[in-house]
Write a sequence for this structure.
């Protein structure tokens, strides 16, 4: 079983739609969780950290479920510029960051 | 302003010819990571430094080595590149004092082996 698993997609949704991604992790001792965005042939960039109580940043909402060991990302009112690969990242221990495979999202006009 | 800088952005090397990729940071972060990312795959951690302490992943081939001469710089040495080592190599940093934070990535070095 992979340490961090995501549905690779691709997800193709119309502009303005709401889309949600899930990510599961295997190590129950994982401490911190993040969503990164990666554009084609570019480096990953932090989209948002994921807190236990859930958090929202504009159109983006992240949730953490420690009991079921999954995190989610919800994108509302999707824009063409949201097209990218979304990477789920889990911190194991103090230092090690493990990436999921990424979910490819395409927003269609 | 770039905070994690990788050089070069593109590197072409011959099969079996040693190559070094470099990374520098202006964030004064104490942890530096090297990841390998192949097409349509997740970034795979090769190793990381916590201050001067080197932490190698169990499945990182011996062909890959790293050096961190000071806080700001970290190098990835590939002793004998094979065709399978062609990939994007990403350097990242984070601050690990008092709890984990997110990682900041450089723009990557795309390595081609011919």
């Amino acid at each position: 079983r992979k340490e961090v698993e995501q549905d690779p997609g691709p997800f193709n949704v119309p502009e303005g739609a709401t889309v949600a991604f899930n990510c599961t992790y295997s190590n129950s001792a994982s401490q911190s969780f993040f969503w990164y965005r990666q554009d084609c042939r570019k480096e990953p960039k932090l989209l948002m950290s994921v807190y236990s109580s859930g958090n929202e940043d504009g159109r983006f909402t992240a949730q953490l479920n420690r009991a079921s060991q999954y995190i989610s990302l919800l994108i509302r009112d999707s824009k063409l510029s949201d097209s990218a690969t979304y990477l789920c990242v889990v911190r194991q221990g103090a230092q090690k960051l493990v990436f999921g495979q990424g979910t490819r999202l395409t927003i269609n006009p | 302003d770039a905070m994690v800088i990788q050089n070069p952005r593109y590197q072409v090397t011959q099969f079996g010819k040693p190559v070094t990729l470099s990374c520098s940071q202006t964030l004064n972060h104490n942890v530096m990571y090297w990841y390998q990312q192949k097409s349509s795959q997740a970034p795979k951690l090769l190793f990381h430094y916590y201050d001067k302490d080197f932490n190698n992943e169990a499945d990182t081939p011996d062909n890959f080595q790293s050096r961190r001469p000071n806080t700001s710089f970290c190098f990835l040495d590939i002793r004998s590149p094979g065709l399978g080592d062609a990939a994007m190599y990403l350097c990242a940093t984070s601050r690990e004092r008092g709890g984990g934070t997110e990682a900041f990535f450089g723009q990557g070095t795309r390595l081609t082996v011919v």
User: Anything to note?
Assistant: Chain A has a mean pLDDT of 92. The interface with chain B takes residues 4, 8, 31-32, 34, 41-46, 49, 87, 89, 91, 94-102 of chain A (CB under 8 Å). The two ends of chain A are 37 Å apart (CA to CA).
